[in-house]
Amino acid sequence: MAFGKGCHLHLIDGSAFIFRAYHALPPLTRKSDGLPIGAVSGFCNMLWKYIEDAKGSDAPTHAAVIFDKGSHTFRNDLYDLYKANREEMPEELRPQIPLTREATKAFNIACEEMAGYEADDIIATLARQAREAGGRVTIISSDKDLMQLVGGGVEMFDAMKNRAIGPEEVEAKFGVGPERVIDVQALAGDSVDNIPGAPGIGVKTAALLINEYGDLETLLARAGEIKQPKRRQTLIEKADQIRLSKQLVTLDEQTPLEFTLDDLELREPEPEQLMEFLNQMEFRTLTRRVAEKFGVEPPPVIETVAAPAASSSSATKEPEPETEQVPFDPDSYVCIRDAEELAKWLDEARAKGWVAVDTETTSLDEMKAEFVGVSLSIEPGKAAYIPLGHTSGEGDLFGGAERVEGQMDLEEALSLLKPVLEDDAILKIGQNMKYDFKIFARHGIRVAPIDDTMLMSYAMFSGLHGHGMDALSDRYLNHQPIPIKELIGSGKSQITFDKVDIAKATRYAAEDADITLRLWQMFKPRLHREQVTTVYETLERPLVPVLADMEMAGVKVETAVLSRMSNAFAQKMAQLEDEIGKIAGQPFNVGSPKQLGEILFDQMGVEGGKKGKTGAYGTGADVLEDVTTMEDTNPEAAKLAARVLDWRQISKLKSTYTDALQTHVNAETGRVHTSYVISGANTGRLASTDPNLQNIPVRSEEGRRIREAFVAGPGMKIVSLDYSQIELRILAHVADLPEMREAFKEGLDIHAATASEMFDVPLEKMTPEIRRQAKAINFGVIYGISGFGLARNLRIPRAEAQGFIDRYFERFPGIRKYMDDTVAFAKEHKFVQTLFGRKIHTPDIVSKGPAAGFAKRAAINAPIQGAAADIIRRAMVRMPAAIEGLPATMLLQVHDELIFEVEEKAVDKLIDAARATMEGSAEPSVKLSVPLVVDAGQGASWAAAH
DNA sequence: AACTTCACG
DNA sequence: GACGTACGTGAAGTTC
């Protein structure tokens, strides 16, 4: 039926329905997999009720549900702060948005949206068209922004209050008729949508003014006549802002729609289609109601395996894929070679609200990597690869290799990808997203929002297995991906990805995106079941952009300083080698523990045993140190050991630091860019690689000088802030040690205070030796103390060490309870937890033999080390906002320390802001019973800042 | 690739 | 009664 006179169009504001449903209902989840489903449930119930209610005498002939699409509209182009203070869409809600589209279609109601326009604009346009065609319109919404449309056959209906909104109701709200609503809104502004309006003028005053002058333009033209000086001044000065506001609140009645009113003709739901959807969502009640209504049998209820309340994770292979899995088919993957095809895929991503993304590049180093291709996946089995930088031939000094035909232009592809990658209504899913984030960031694209399957795995399964894609695919999808080696080879003959044939690359790269999407679909609901959603969302995921920015910033390193040190070290080493050769009676490779062992123990007759599976002599520093004490029995060996120790120290500094660091200086930036592995340590700590900047020497005077090469740029300073004794403070809190808590509150030297408590020595009579022993015990406790270990560390008899430990437990009874409770918890659950909910799995806790001992100590240590890691992660996530506007950059993290580069004049401000953020970062999640204290230092170099 | 050693918190 | 033991990392060099 063509739309015309006598027709009645119902327009449902879909977004309003969704939000109302979301906020009205408790957070329901789908039973079979834990998918959040509350908003969809509410949405369906509202639609059903609407259909039932709409059947009276005034029934609609045409109807549509209108949705917003994306968040960027033409209004953002007019005013970049439009809706800028909108809160992020709740995490639980995001995956439900596409489902509400599906629900609408299942109800057989037209479902419309339009990129670049708000739902309100589509509603305005349809209302105008219907009005002009002589029909009537009812807008199902109570949104005040739609009230400008009321009149001339258009009215609104508030479904919650069950009342119509006509011209009288609009006038009651705005003080003017519908035709002047936008004038009032332009003046009054709107804090929700961040429309500025005229400062100091609200709806009441606006209506007064409009009623007096007739309309907005007249008012602005005659603003000079206004008596109140403040009001007059505002209207004159802010006229532009008010006109802009009017533009923003005015709905676009000329939205270019791709459908007509006739397409919206109301249809009865198809019972089967509808029930299949409802059943899939596992809405039992509604499914039954619908079945009754249509007089058909409800479909069989989906068998659900109730999710266990506690964690169900185990070290064994998961039998997860219960439902039929779409088979992997590399031949089905699409190779995207032109803009039309890419646009098609991106539209599907928009419709779904998510897309898995993976990049292929020429290097593992994100700071050097060039784009070779991008792969996308929208649903399991459906993936595509966009080749962008494949080359052939060798290339030479004068020209790059030849570009392979049939590839999109990189810039063109990126310009199409950018709006999707930055659209906050489209979730970008990746495996190790920090890598892809950095590649895109270097091309001016900030990917957001994101999900990362590697980090999901880390949050759920830390301690159980690795989180690389191959391992996850094998374990959870029972699928072995194409090994990268098959494409690029290995070792010396390895090639870069751009040299890979496009057809092969498509099969490999698209598969990665496919796997990532499948893993995500499996992991997302499981985060809830494992109760680590908050950990993932507050401690893992938000770290991705923060770390990416730190890594991209890099730290300035003076190669000249390092080079000078290298030369000095080389000289010293040669000298020592010479001496060592003379003592040994023959030259040998000092760097070879095997040769050294044979010379020391076989030729020079030092008493000492073999160890290790290989049967080689142990020649570690502790062994050699023992040998140096044999001046009386074997003076030659003692001397040799001492020289070797010196040589080893210098060799280490040279090869690992002064030499290697220089090779890591990026040619373009002149700085060193480390890479942090978020899932690197089981406890929640980060790991730093390529190069590792978390183990730059500091303990020895010689080594510490390497930090002099880590410098600030001109006019800048290096600032270092570190948590003081954070692990002991956490121990004092979690193990409930009142004496230690008090010591921290009083700001005492904690090791001295411990010594005083243990050995009954007053603080003023403390000796360095007693304090040293107490310090060793304090650390021992954190590591899961044993008499043997403490004895070795302090080089005292085992019985004496055990005596210390007994005494410690006696004085701090909370310690023993903490240890016992933690181990018992680990045995029961096979994991331990930090204060912030991070889980660290300890499957070996039940094994027999030495592994059990390791697992036990790891279980004792993990909640402490892990909580400290959580605390600094929280600080890092908050840091960008905390130091916003300051000329400062966060550069490095070293477990309990954050390092910044700051303009000299802002050093004090930076320290204040960063310290406050760090000291307060446990809150509000955890209120510690001990204060967190942060020490700060500054200087031209890292050495000076420490 | 495994092992040893040693740098850091 | 014996066995092995501090917790968490990454990199370089040697050996197999």
UniProtKB/TrEMBL annotation:
> What Enzyme Commission number(s) apply to this enzyme?
2.7.7.7
Q: Where is the composition biased (Low complexity)?
A: 305-316
Which reaction is recorded as catalysed by this protein?
A: DNA(n) + a 2'-deoxyribonucleoside 5'-triphosphate = DNA(n+1) + diphosphate
Q: Which PANTHER family match?
A: DNA POLYMERASE I, DNA POLYMERASE NU
Assembly with partners or alone:
Single-chain monomer with multiple functions.
What CDD domains does the record tag this protein with? DNA_pol_A_pol_I_C, DNA_polA_I_Ecoli_like_exo, H3TH_53EXO, PIN_53EXO
Enumerate the spans annotated as 3'-5' exonuclease domain. Answer: 333-528
| Molecular function GO terms recorded | 3'-5' exonuclease activity; 5'-3' exonuclease activity; DNA binding; DNA-directed DNA polymerase activity
The protein's UniProt keywords, in alphabetical order, are: DNA damage, DNA repair, DNA replication, DNA-binding, DNA-directed DNA polymerase, Exonuclease, Hydrolase, Nuclease, Nucleotidyltransferase, Transferase
InterPro entries tied to this protein: 3'-5'_exonuclease_dom, 5-3_exonucl_a-hlix_arch_N, 5-3_exonuclease, 5-3_exonuclease_C_sf, DNA-dir_DNA_pol_A_CS, DNA-dir_DNA_pol_A_palm_dom, DNA/RNA_pol_sf, DNA_polI_H3TH
Q: SUPFAM superfamilies under this entry?
A: 5' to 3' exonuclease, C-terminal subdomain (SSF47807), DNA/RNA polymerases (SSF56672), PIN domain-like (SSF88723), Ribonuclease H-like (SSF53098)
Which segments constitute the 5'-3' exonuclease domain?
A: 4-267
Q: Does the keyword DNA damage apply?
A: yes
Instruction: Name the segments for region: Disordered.
Output: 305-329
Give the enzyme's main class according to its UniProt record, as a single word: transferase
Any idea what this protein is called? DNA polymerase I
